[in-house]
Amino acid sequence: MKINKKKILVVSLIFLICLFIFSLFVGNYKINFLNGINIILGKGDFNSIEYKIFWQLRLPRILMALIIGMLLGSSGAVTQTLFRNPMADPYIIGISASGTFGAVIAYMLGLSESYYGIFASVFSFVTSFIIFKLSNSKKGALNLSTLLIVGIAISAFLRALISLSMYLIGEDSFRVIVWTMGYLGGGDWKKILILSIPLALALFYFYFNRYRLDVILLSDEEAHSLGIDIKKFKYQILIVSTFMVGFSVAFSGMIGFVGLIIPHIVRMIFGSSNIKLIPLSMFYGGVFLLFCDTLSRGISTTMEVPIGIITAIFGAPFFIYLAFKNKRGNL
């Protein structure tokens, strides 16, 4: 059966608009629908609690969910392309854990939030570089078993260091606990502005390299025959990908499986060409994370479920599915 891709995109866009509006009304504080519409249209009381909840809490949080979802979705697509395997999710192979550890170090040093993304990106890049080197054989082929073993080992080691940091911080360790479970409740306009920088730079880089990105899907020999320094290009992509993961982790913690689920589903529907895969993974990553964040706020009326738990509920079974599919040699 032929899939109508344009209809899927139109339906997805309509769903995003509806989800965006619906998400504004989800939370512990109930807001009347008509009052909320008036606030959206700029007709509400600027000094009311409802107005402040809409514009200072929920709207920044929604935009933050979209931006971080876009960063995680597209970085997952790039990571899978770089390692040439759809199971190479930044969360699973330890890149997210290294970014979290970098942000924790910045926090322990007493630095401002603008440094969290820098520290997270640096630690993420170092981890990615180690994994990239250890997972490739002398012939340049990726060893999937090595990739997963090294990634899981590094992730476990860094989680132990994060736990140690929580112990050393003591009573003020709530921020670290939030990072380990994923949390978007701290979204504000300043963070959105900071996160917009890596998103804009990534969009700029991917657009101007949209055709070269498909070269990675070929063998290194074919890339060289096209006049591309594939080794240098791969390191550039590695830096951009970890830059995106680092900043997203710094402000939201370890939100797993977005970079695993979204690129794989997009690849099945729209194909594996990076010209479509990366921007669509960015779009659907934002939609998926906003959906999960809405669920995390709407499941209970008394408490909020960490968003990392919601994404894991979707992602863990999907990872098992990919593992069995890979075992049968269908990937």
Write up what this structure looks like.
This protein has helices spanning 5-23, 33-40, 49-83, 95-108, 116-135, 144-169, 174-181, 189-208, 220-225, 230-252, 258-270, 274-298, 307-327. It has a single domain (5-327), classed as ABC transporter involved in vitamin B12 uptake, BtuC (Orthogonal Bundle), CATH 1.10.3470. The protein is mainly α and 331 residues long.
Shape: globular
Helix content: over 70%
CATH architecture: Orthogonal Bundle
Query: H/E element string?
Result: HHHHHHHHHHHHH
**Helix segment tally:** 13
Give a brief outline of the structure.
By secondary structure, the chain is an all-alpha fold. The protein has helices at 5-23, 33-40, 49-83, 95-108, 116-135, 144-169, 174-181, 189-208, 220-225, 230-252, 258-270, 274-298, 307-327.
List the SSEs and their pairings.
Layout: H1 5-23, H2 33-40, H3 49-83, H4 95-108, H5 116-135, H6 144-169, H7 174-181, H8 189-208, H9 220-225, H10 230-252, H11 258-270, H12 274-298, H13 307-327
Helix pairs in contact: 1-12, 3-8, 3-10, 3-11, 3-12, 4-5, 4-6, 4-10, 5-6, 5-10, 6-7, 8-10, 11-12
Q: Which tags fit this structure?
A:
single chain; about 325 residues; mainly alpha; ABC transporter involved in vitamin B12 uptake, BtuC; 13 helices; about 70% helix
